[in-house]
Amino acid sequence: MDIIKITGLHHRYPDGRTSLEGIDLTIAGGSFVVLAGANGAGKSTLLKHLNGLLRPQQGTVEIAGVPVQQDLRHARRIVGMVFQDADSQIVGETVYDDAAFGPENLNWPASRIRDSVDAALELVGLGALRDRSPHLLSGGEKRRLAIAGVLAMAPEVIVLDEPFANLDYDGVRQVLAHIVALHGSGRTIIVCVHDLEKVLAHAQRLIILQRGRIAADGPPEQVVLAAEACGVRLPAAIRMGGVVESWLR
């Protein structure tokens, strides 16, 4: 069943430049989707429409059958967003407080907030750091805290915008392992990247944006060769005639 349905979506910047032009897209529940494109292709703009950070100027965006503009609370309960800049999502004085921010704004009972936050922090391996200042965490730990804050709200869809940006090898592996585990638990995963190297081995579907339009969409092995023409670098293994392997091996 499709959990996301986008029809005829257009978006233009205030100066008149086009960001998205005629996007038609459905995403099935439980799938692992990679959204790729060069800088300025419209990736982040598209993602922000999924939970109402941007509203359709033309067209519709439906989350689990409900238009986003009709019920923002519904969209934000279903779709959790993890942004590229983890520091921009830090709002709490402690790791626990930060992860509890979202559930608190949903006005959940205190016991439900506590149980949900405890479970989310344990899931991303930060339970032992619950009382630490989030500003003292490493880059990978901050990204995992951002994921925990989203998980604490129990979304069905998790959207990650450039989740590996500015992380070292160990940080990438940590974050990737948690993303893969979340997909294994049944959640819909949408990962936005401009570099396919780290995540392609786990994708079930690859969508490439170019100048605000969908340039290619389908199984990764069929679509990936269109990447370079759209400004996305091919993984080294494919350049050498091989197969992209997981960074988790």
What does this structure look like?
The structure is a single chain. This protein is α/β, with parallel strands linked by helices. 30% of the residues lie in helices and 25% in strands. The protein contains eight helices and ten strands. Strands 6-7-8-3-9-10 form a six-stranded mixed beta sheet. α3 (95-105) runs parallel beside α5 (139-151), α4 (110-123) packs across α5 and α5 packs parallel to α6. It is globular, with a radius of gyration of 18 Å.
The secondary-structure element order is EEEHEEHEHHHEHEEEHH
**How many strand elements?**
10
Distance between the termini: 32 Å
Which spans of ≥5 residues are poorly predicted at pLDDT below 50?
Answer: none
Q: Going across the major beta sheet, what is the strand order?
A: 6-7-8-3-9-10
Can you tell me the overall shape? globular
Main sheet attributes: strand count, strand direction, barrel closure: 6 strands, mixed
**Strand fraction:** 15-25%
Q: Percentage of helical residues?
A: 25-40%
Radius of gyration: 18 Å
Mean pLDDT across every amino acid position: 93
Figure out the total of helices: 8
Structural class: alpha/beta
